[in-house]
Amino acid sequence: MAKYKKRVEWGVRLQHYNLKEGDDLHPRAVLRGTLDVHDLALILEENSRGIYRAADTELIVNQLMSVARDALVDGYALNTPMGRLTPVVRGMWNFNRINPAARAQNQASLSYALSTELKKAFEDPLFHVENSLQRGPFIFDIRDMESGTHNERLTPGGYVFLKGRLLLMNGDSPLRGVELLDAETEEVIHHFPAAELGSMNTRSRLFFRLPKDLPDGTYRLAVSSQCCTKPTPLKEPVRWVDHKVLRVGEEPAEEEDAVR
Q1: Residue-wise over 183-216: b if at least 16 C-beta within 10 A, else e?
Q2: Which among 14, 54, 174, 247 counts the fewest CB atoms within 10 Å?
Q3: Nearest-angstrom CA–CA distance, 118 and 126
Q4: pLDDT at 4
């Protein structure tokens, strides 16, 4: 089986842990959104260049989920690539089964355990603390239109579609725009001023084209905008440096592969 190359990189917000005395903080994952079967089917259709039609995939998955539901109701445990679902009974047992109140003390439920595949995918996670009070721009998703990947690659000369918040390039500061940074040094490799960004620019999305001569390597993005929650832009732009590492070109072979 091919090695899974993606790595967990999640934003977290810290909250006080009220069940214990002291200053312990509890991290909570910041969700980028919620996907359903329809969304996943559309992503598969796009990634497969239309080989797997979304409508067909969605129909099959929904039928499969119906079969899975019936199996769980019948008392079967399910092993899937996402994990193991096991029927369980909640509550303490009361022998007076004729009494509806006694029967109501028990509920049918499920326990869940991560699959081996997911455990490996979740190894060595990287978490970034996000400030919930941040007033400036923020990037949720970076889509490379040429490769169809999200938060992974950049294609020289191709278009990039950003999703986030407070990305609108209102205001008049010359510092507004998107910056392409060296992933290690954060040196600015290329600046995309606000005037060069696509007409699809809104509060929640940005669209721009990469230089054709962009060298192989790893990069990150930064966004500077004067957009805020009020109609009037900020006097000075706020800059957000995104943590996601994006690769141009092929990833260098690992040492053991190189020896072979």
Answers
A1: beeeeebeebebeebeeebebebbbbebeeebee
A2: 174
A3: 16
A4: 66
User: What pLDDT, in 10s, does the model give residues 5-34?
Assistant: 778 888 888 877 666 666 678 888 887 778
Tell me the three state secondary structure of residue 88: strand
pTM value? 0.59
Question: CA 126 to CA 27: how far, in whole Å?
Answer: 13
What would the DSSP string read from start to end of 115-157?
Answer: -HHHHHHTSS-EEEE--TT--S-EEEEEEETTTTEESSB--TT
**Residues constituting the chain:** 260
Rounded alpha-carbon distances, angstroms, from residue 109 to 36, 89, 90, 102? 22, 6, 7, 17
Which domains are present in the chain?
134-248 (2.70.50.70)
What would the pLDDT profile of 108-142 be if each residue is shown by its tens digit?
999 999 999 999 999 999 888 876 555 678 888 99
Of 257 and 71, which is predicted with more confidence?
Answer: 71
Q: What are the φ/ψ torsions at residue 102 (nearest 5 degrees)?
A: -70, -45
